[in-house]
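YM 10:42: Epithelial splicing regulatory protein 2 sequence, as discussed on the call
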Amino acid sequence: SLVVLFGATAGAYGAKLGSDERELILLVWQVVDLPSKKVGTLHKSLVKADNLDLSDQCREVSGLTPEGLGKAEPLDRVLQQFSQLVSSDLKALGRSSYTLCSDGQLLIRQVLHPETSKKNLLLSDCFYSFYDLRKEFHTCYPSAADVKDQTIKTMAEYLGLGTDETEEDFGVWQVKAMVAIIFSMISESCNHMFTEPETVKYKYETGPCLLLAFCFLFLCSSKSETVDSETVIRARGLPWQSSDQDIARFFKGLNIAKGGVALCLNAQGRRNGEALVRFVDSEQRDLALERHKHHMGSRYIEVYKATGEEFLKIAGGTSNEVAQFLSKENQVIIRMRGLPFTATQEDVLGFLGPECPVTGGKEGLLFVKYPDGRPTGDAFVLFSCEEYAQNALKKHKEILGKRYIELFRSTAAEVQQVLNRYMSTPLIPTLPTPIIPVIPPPYTIATGSIRDCVRLRGLPYTAGIDDILEFMGDATGDIKPHGVHMVLNQQGRPSGDAFIQMKSADKAFMVAQRCHKKMMKDRYVEVFQCSGEEMNFVLMGGTLNRSGLSPPPCKLPCLSPPAYTAFQTAAVIPAEAALYQPQALLPTTRTPQASAAAPSSVTYYPAQAAQLYMNYTAYYPSPPVSPTTVGYIAAPPGAVAAAATATHTPILPQPGALVRMQGLPYNTGMKEILSFFQGYQYTPDDYNGLIQLGDQVRSVLQAPKEWVCL
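YM 10:58: structure's back
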C-alpha cells in the first residue's frame, strides 16, 4: 500500500518549499491499496507552528490564517495522529505495511526531517523510505516533461485529468489528483510497478570514504578525478566546537557519503568554521545548496558549491599509517591535545582508564609526530561506541604528568589534515613566509587628527578595489595614490570595511555626503568621515564605533596570509617597534640595493621621528579558540643599513638568541612581558649612548638580552 502525502509550510511553496526554513503548517494524506485499487479516508490536519506569521504567498495559495492555525495541534501530536490513523485505515483494507508517496523530494527531505531534528522529535521509520511521484511518473511516461519541471497539475494535464484546484480545499485537491495519477500509472495500459523507493539515511557514517581508501591503496597520482565536483559543497560560518555529527544533523534528510564531512583547519591546526561536505549524488548536493543561510543554533550557515579537488585536499592523504588507523568501521574518534612529549601509549591508556576502553588497545592510538619522529603533543584515539567516547570527553583538562589534556571530538578528515600538516613541516623550524621587507613607499598613511579619510562599511564581500573606485565616481580623482585600504577578517577574507584617504578634509566631507547609503551591487554602503588616526586604529586591529575608539589588541600589526595578496596597502610601524632578523631562523632577502658591507645579522631601532612602512593586512581579534598568528618581519640588510643612514640611528649587534612565547592572555602588553623577563635586562644606562630614547619610551622599553617575538 501507498500513503499519498502532501504538505505545506508557512513560507515558500512549490519548487522553493523548505528553502526559507519555515515550519510545517499542513499535512494531508490518504491510503491507497494498489492490488485492490481501493482508498482509505482522506485526512487533513493543520499544524500549529511556533511562528504563526504566514508569508503572502502562503496566505494566497492556502487560504489559511494565523487564527485558524493557532487552534491546531503541534507537530509532535500531528505525527502521532498520522501513525494512528494510517494504521487504522490499513487495518480496514486488510493491509499492514505501507510506503509513503509524495510529490517530489522536498516535503520529506527539506521540511519534515530538518524540522523534527531541530525540535528533537523522533520520526517513525516510514519517513526514511518514500516514492517520488515525479520520478515514477517520468519512468512510466518518458515522453512527459523532465522531472524537475513536473508538478501535480502538469502530470494531471498530461493524463487529461481534471485540473480545477478551486473545487476542493487546499491540499485536498492535490492528494486526490495524486491518487488519480497513481491509478492511471498502475492501469493495464501502463502496468507501472513501484519497486525502488527513495531512501533517507538514518545516521551519518564516519570513517574514510571508499574512494579515499582506493587512493590510499593505489596511491593515485591524480586524485582530483575520484570525487565528482557536482557532489561537494562548502559550509561556512560553523560554530567552532561543531563536529561532523553536528554538520550531518544540519543536513538532516540528505544523504551524505560515508566519511563525507571534512572539517577545515587553520594554520594552527584548529577548526576555522568551515567544512567540505560530499553527498552521494548531485541531486542531494543541489538540495543542500537550498539550505544556504539556514541556522545551526543561533548562527546562520553559508552553503556554496565546491570541487572534488578541494575535498580531497582536506580529506585525502596517502599515508598508510592513517589508512590503517581509519580502516576500522563505525568508530568514534577523539583528539587529545597537549600531551607531554614523553607520554607513551601506556600513559595514555592509563589516563583514559577502564571506563573508556580504546578500540584494539594500543592499535587504537595514533600519535602525531614531526618527520624526524619528535612528538607534537597530539594524538587520536578510537572508541567503539558513543558511551566510551563520552566518558573520555569527561576527562577534558584533567592532568597527565604536569600538563592538562584537552579532548575533542574529531573526524577522519581531521586526522588526515593534522598528519599531513605536521609531516610536511620542515625539520628546521622556520618562521612564517613570505617575509615582507620593510621598504618605504612614496606615500604614507596619515596619522593626525585631520578628518581627511572616509570609512566604507557594509561592502559586499565580493567587492574589490575596482568596485570601490566605480562606487566613488567622480571623487576617484581626489583619492591619494595608494589610498584605498581593505580590512580583512581573521580568515583573510574581506570584512566588508574599507578606508580611503582623500586629498583634503573637504573632499572627504563631500564624499561622505554624496555616497552615504549609495548602492553597490545589491547592498547599500555607509560612508563616514574619519581621521587618519582613527583609520590606523582599525587597521591595527582596534574598533571604531559610537562609543569611540577601542585600542588594538597589540602594537605590532599582523601579516597577511601568504595566499591572500589581492590588496597591497601601506601602514606605519610605531616608532617604538623593533625589527628582528635572526639569520638562523629567517631567510635573507637579497635586493640590488643590499650593501656588501652590511652586517649579517642586525637589529634596527628607529628614532622616534622615523617612519617605517610595510605591506600588510590587519586582522580583527580572533576568538579564544583560534589565536591570531602574529607574523615576523625581516628587513634586508641593505634596506636596514640605508634606513639607519637616513635617520642617523646606530646599529646594534643582534642578541644571541630569540624566544617565542605562546599562551599569552589577549590583553597582555609590553610592560607585562618585560616584567615577566625581569632579571634578564640591561639597565637603561648601559645603552643610553646607543639608542635615542625619549622619556616616555625609556619608561616602557627595556632592552632584554634575549628579545621576545610574539
